[in-house]
Please model this.
Amino acid sequence: MSQMAAPPFPPGEPHGPRQVSKFEFNLLRITRFLTGHFPADQGLSLVNAALPQPPCASANAVELVKDTLAKALVLFLVRAGGWRNDKFLRHNMPTPGRVWHRIPLEERILKFSPPVMEFLIWLTAEKVLDTKKAWDATPQTLTPADELFFALAFDALRHDTHVLTVLRKKAAFRHNPFCWLLAAGDLAGRENATVSPPDFTPLFQGERAVFLECLQRYLEQRWIAHEQAKGQITDWSKMRCVGQAEYAALRYYIEAADTAKRHDLARFILRTNAAILSLNPTSDFWTGGLQGSGPPRLADRLETQRAALAVPRQMELLREWQARARSVAFFDDDYAASQLWKSEWEAVQGDRLAERAQAIIARLEPLRGSVPDAKPTLASNTAETESSGTGPSTDRPK
Amino acid sequence: MSRAYRITVKESESRHLKAGDEICTQLELLEILPPEDMATLLREELKRRGFEEQEDGTLIRRDGEVIITVDPCSGEVSVKAETEAQVTQEAKREATGFNDVGPNERSLRERVKEQLKQDLERKFEQEQSKLQSQATEKLEKHLQDLTPQIHDIVNQVTRDALKQKAQQLGTVKEISEDAESGSLTIKVEI
Model:
């Protein structure tokens, strides 16, 4: 009978739970709340309470925070979409597989920097609404993993409107591109309506691009939910703030994706449009909840209605991508990438969606009204061109 | 012995109030011809309909207090309505004081004046909002009249562009237009 060697023991674990102070216990619970592993109501009550801060955190507590962050963020990314056997561009070539098959380990190691721990200590020691020591982090010092963590923290905390008002003034959130992708409408409150999204270019490089690959389905679900929630907005000025922030975020994101030649990372915008526009909605889907006659100026009312259609208005740019992808020849460098985009576009019947989006937008625009189609048609030898004479259609003559 | 007195303060102010409303939109022109040719056709059509060309290349028409501006190159149309009025407002307030208690006459008068200023400000705000409503109403009404005109302009430019395009394609054999249905048929021999 052969004898098998005993499996190696895991690293020495102390018997029973590790000992931490009351402050550290709350800090750990807040960490778990921010990463989605603790009930929101209890987490928010901990955030709104204050505890005296000890001179330094124990080694046990630091170990547990590290362990929680490492496991929770990886778990989040895997659940959000990293597990899917999907196809994304790598070195401009479509690469299939799950995220751990597509991306080598060294390109997906999460590194956290001191601002994360400082933020957790601040959140535990201070009442966010009545803070004695102001906390913020310089966006340039944050690692990709920090940014993702702060985006998740913002997402967890934004449900408390008072906390949200404080957090959105902080650079760690205001200039965080992941925050803009998750909750653009919440970043632009009425008090800082003019705030504009950060530069999205770094998102399409290195680890951040890997995060985006994992987040495509998650972002799609989030944006669909945002769009559905718009119909419940009753306040005109809120709708305008939310819509303008969303429009700017998506527009900058699409432009940055185009510059980085990562059209595959705008998949969630296309699919969000597909999910909404396949219902064949009218503009009431977005603006139906608005109460009263709105602002006195027609210009403001129109601007609000245009802002509400932030997502379908992106179809115009995506259609341009499709037109460009169609013109890429087999021997061009971008052929494989353009084929991937075309397959995405065709899978959701992009042409039909773009026409629907255009029709919805056109109905809102003054001086357009409803106009029947004018389709110039060409016969074989004798070209016969016919115009209904009542305005142009969305079809463009070849 | 305490003696009461009454102060009456009157203020009047005249202001020139202005209100405006403006919408901007894009003409939906088909790219039948190159953009510069489409712009030329649009410019000609707009001139025929009373628009005047400006130094910056835009075309403007004034319909009363409404100004329509069209940029033929970008196809951007803006319609602006403005109203203005010289408004005079008057406010009056009275206050009672006592010579031995409470604020003295001077501070009482200043307090009343401060209140009067606020009263006047409120009245002017009301006037301003009335003017604003007038400007918006004017704009809305004018947009209703303008929409068919803009449709006609776009249609005419589309027809002219189609005719030119047909000439470029080959020999135009026949052009038939039905003014009632608005249809245009061009037969081209290529």
